[in-house]
């Protein structure tokens, strides 16, 4: 619910499926909930949730994906 408060702003969430801090099911439920909030506002494209099959980290692929997403939304 708290993450949904960013709407209508842009939001990227990157999640690691092997992160021991959260269950994959919990991450998926949270992602789906936020997606529904954005969709209900007619701005589904402002939210992106990406799952990576890795431990808790911010690896080079995740960095490339994050920078590409930021460039898409932050460039004038």
Q: What percentage of residues falls in helices of 4 or more residues?
A: 40-55%
Alpha-beta classification: alpha+beta
N-to-C series of helices and strands: EHEH
Strand order of the largest sheet: 1-2
- Low confidence ranges: none
* N→C terminal distance: 30 Å
Alpha plus pi helix count: 2
Mean pLDDT score, rounded? 96
* Backbone CA Rg: 13 Å
The shape, in one word, is: flat
Overview of the molecule:
There is one protein chain. The chain is of the alpha+beta class and 76 residues long. The protein has two helices and two strands, in the order βαβα. A two-stranded parallel sheet has the order 1-2.
Features:
two-stranded parallel sheet; 76 residues; 42% helix; single chain; alpha+beta
Topology, element by element:
Blueprint (H helix, E strand, L loop, with lengths): L10 E6 L7 H17 L6 E6 L7 H15 L2
Parallel strand pairs: 1-2
Characterize this entry briefly.
The chain is an alpha+beta fold and 76 residues long.
